[in-house]
Amino acid sequence: MAAPRVTMEVGNDGVAIITLINPPVNALAIPIVAGLKDKFEEATSRDDVKAIVLTGNGGRFSGGFDINVFQKVHGAGDVSLMPDVSVELVVNLIEDCKKPIVAAVEGLALGGGLELAMGCHARIAAPKTQLGLPELTLGVIPGTQRLPRLVGLSKAIEMMLGWKLGLIDAVVTSEELLKVSRLWALDIAARRKPWIRSLHRTDKLGSLSEAREVLKLARLQAKKTAPNMPQHQACLDVIEEGIVHGGYSGVLKEAKVFKELVMLDTSRGLVHVFFAQRATSKVPNVTDIGLKPRGVRKVAVIGGGLMGSGIATAHILNNIYVVLKEVNSEYLLKGIKTIEANVRGLVTRGKLTQDKANNALKMLKGVLDYSEFKDVDMVIEAVIESVPLKQKIFSELEKACPPHCILATNTSTIDLNIVGEKTSSQDRIIGAHFFSPAHVMPLLEIVRTERTSAQVILDLMTVGKIIKKVPVVVGNCTGFAVNRAFFPYSQSARLLVSLGVDVFRIDSAIRSFGLPIGPFQLLDLAGYGVAAATSKEFDKAFPDRSFQSPLVDLLLKSGRNGKANGKGLYTYEKGSKPKPDPSVLPIIEECRRLSNIMPGGKPISVTEKEIVEMILFPVVNESCRVLEEGIVVRASDLDVASVLGMSFPSYRGGIVFWADAVGANYVYTSLKKWSQLYGNFFKPSRFLEERATKGIPLSAPVSSSSTSRARL
User: Strands, E, within 115-213: which ranges?
Assistant: First the structure.
């Protein structure tokens, strides 16, 4: 690959075209930023240059700052590793240039790329160009000074905290982009068009009192939506600095705050997740052996329930033809109606046009037998968690489908070897574990057995990307990676209840930590029948470390089934948030009486911090076993899976990254103490003990000799 570079060509019309070249997205790597400075200084000093056009190579303007620099800074813990020639310095150079500069924007202009465009004196864009300031998602702040001056304060805040916009001077076709930009730059030079330096503008800012009111509302909103993310409030503080004391003062504060934020744990966690997500696409002995993915054009989904209909929706939305099979016409009609409702919902929320919705629904066909399966490329079984039923279906599929067809199951817990026990096509059997709702949740857990072929894994990874999921390849065991690592999550919450801790206080502590809902609201959402069935699987697989609480059985006996029947630990009324239901308190008391584990019969006293740790440290403990057994390719895969599958807060970097930040030794000593007080459920794993006592991070690679089952 050629080195990143910046080129300049001066035309007969006196316009210098400065081009960023750093495929695939022209990221602002250090050589690019330095090259821009040199080229702008050269163009400014040359007498034959009247005006300048800045553009990107290959149909993309710039994807923004090269965040590999963040990784280096975080790794060394040294903010001085940030480059001397900053994007902001180049933007100031552009803005103060004595010759007019026009940005010719195409494809995307994100982050620092958009900052460059905003520093220019005009912006011409091709249609469908993506503009945005995604820095907050990496724990730092975007450029805060120019956008409010170009589009107004409210719009700028809306865009910084959630992307909406209108700062382009003209939209032209890709073919006309450079020609129009050249003419526009010459028109500015000849004073036929306005020469606008964005940092000097104040006409769109409104009065100081209006600005302060807008910022006050934005702060309240940020506090509500991102309570644990300091970069949102910092962004608003820097905007205010620029409005009150002027643009240059704001730019200086922005540089200082940026360097402070980049060293915080929030930025470390978010940048880790960003790179970890990229790494999931690299699977040894699958993606590195020269295989090419086969096309998957037609998929059959068996079962039109909540999961099956969601899986079918995900495929038809991305132009993959789906055959939906059910056992009778009543269930089939219900499944099709659910899919239609899923698609309509996206239209209502403005995420899909009516045309695309109509085209997607044309990709769906409902059937009651296997006659349409003769030319399918993949089948995804999504029926109830019944081993005999799944085995029967897979035996039938082997006969009904072509020999190349991928045979996938959406089981969330059952061992794949048991599912495919009665077939001879073991190399085609794979887990395609979606998370509910399947057309919305971004994770696809791809479960392979020791006999699944590399080709089948690669094909499913490719389908996953087509349907806009993040595929994470994992090994085969009860619960696979995510549900296996997180099975202690609900059990530890129930154990705390049996020890006398308030149900609603537990949920509140977990929400404050950063998960969207707590374990008991999640229990209500999943339904008690599902929770009871899943618990049985884990109790059977891991009897040495399961806590068997009577709570779910007691709730079921009292006629409750969570949100499904509107009666759970919370009450559910249309149009309002779930509210704690005080009438469950006698059931909870009965649960405590039957468990009989409160020390001296009295509730234990715990802080919010201890609640979080007593619920999440057992998850870390089980994650250690997942790592030791080689169920995931690398620790960061489990981080991605925990963020995308269990909504673990991304700014904490995922379950293993967070545990390393807390300290393996602290996790180990806490679990050891609790195991002595409350039993084996908290007993530290061998892997955790070894890493803690030797001072090795939990995320450090596992040697093949220490992997008890090297599945991956």
Answer: 122-125, 130-132, 170-171
Separation of alpha carbons 712 and 703, rounded Å:
12
- Nearest CA among 132, 140, 139, 138 for reference residue 158: 132
* 3-state SS, residue 415: coil
- Catalytic: 115? yes
Residue 648 has what DSSP assignment?
Answer: -
Given a contact cutoff of 8 angstroms between Cβ atoms, the answer to whether 494 and 551 are in contact is yes
> Tens of pLDDT along 270-293?
999 999 999 999 999 999 999 999
CB contact at 8 A, 180 and 186: no
Query: What pLDDT, on the 0 to 100 scale, is given for residue 160?
Result: 66
640, 430 contact by CB (below 8 A): no
Q: Tokens 């290959």 label which residue?
A: 58
**Dist. CA 404–CA 377, nearest whole Å:** 7
Q: Structure pTM?
A: 0.88
Tell me, yes or no, if 589 is annotated catalytic: no
Partnered with residue 408 across adjacent β-strands are 380, 430
The active-site residue, picked from 106, 135, 326, 622, is 135
> Quick one: average pLDDT of 245-273?
89
Inform me whether the pLDDT recorded for 238 exceeds 60: yes
The letter for the amino acid at 538 is F
Q: What is the pLDDT of residues 167-214, one digit of tens each?
A: 788 889 999 999 999 999 999 999 999 898 887 877 777 788 888 888
Which stretches within 263-353 are classed as H helix? 265-279, 306-316, 329-348
| DSSP of 576-642 | S--EE-GGGHHHHHHHHHHH--SGGGSPPP--HHHHHHHHHHHHHHHHHHHHHTT-BSSHHHHHHHH
Catalytic residue among 88, 95, 106, 115: 115
